[in-house]
Amino acid sequence: MLDDLGSTSWHNRHYGPFARLNELLTEAGVARPSIMIVGPGGVSRWLAPLLNNSAADSSFVRKTIGDLARYSDQVLRRFPFVPLISLEPLEVRETMLMPHDLTVVDRSARLLEAVRRDIPEAITHVVDLGLDAPPARADVVIAFNIVSRLDDRAADGIQHLLTVLRSGGWLLIDDRSARAHLANHPRVTQVAPKTHRVDAAN
Ligand SMILES: C[S@@+](CC[C@H](N)C(=O)[O-])C[C@H]1O[C@@H](n2cnc3c(N)ncnc32)[C@H](O)[C@@H]1O
User: Is the pTM higher than 0.70?
Assistant: First the structure.
């Protein structure tokens, strides 16, 4: 049986928002933020070194190799015996320069096992975001390219993410999900590209 697992597709896909988040947390003086990543995606550990990297300049040939690896990964990662790596948690770990606590949430237990292999101290929860809120609170929630995939449960998914966030917390989310669910939201203000603050005035 094949695993219908979503992917990050390349290295440093969200590097810009992560770097800005590090600045925002530093400016705000949050001593040890709790950061929750929801739906980080995974790729085959075997092909990961060949994937493109949006934080690096690459030649045409290198980019072509990266594209071929991406297409191959779309098939390979679906076989349950193939070892996975989840890039987003590792990139958040690397980009946040202050001590922080990391929680990772996904509906895929296989993906979360790969996260714990690389980041043993990460707390993980198997949760279907369309059905339930993650069982923890956080100063930051990162949820790229998941809400827009929840179809008729997307509004519930956004509500579950907002439930997790502490007052004044930051929500990093893709533009498509933000446009559909956060425009004119009474509790949410956009403070940077793909970055929103919840109840910022309180
Ligand atoms: C398309 S990937 C997004 C990967 C990464 N965040 C990105 O922006 O490239 C979707 C991720 O959300 C997870 N996911 C999909 N539906 C979910 C649900 N209902 N509840 C929890 N996780 C879900 C998938 O397992 C996968 O890790």
Answer: yes
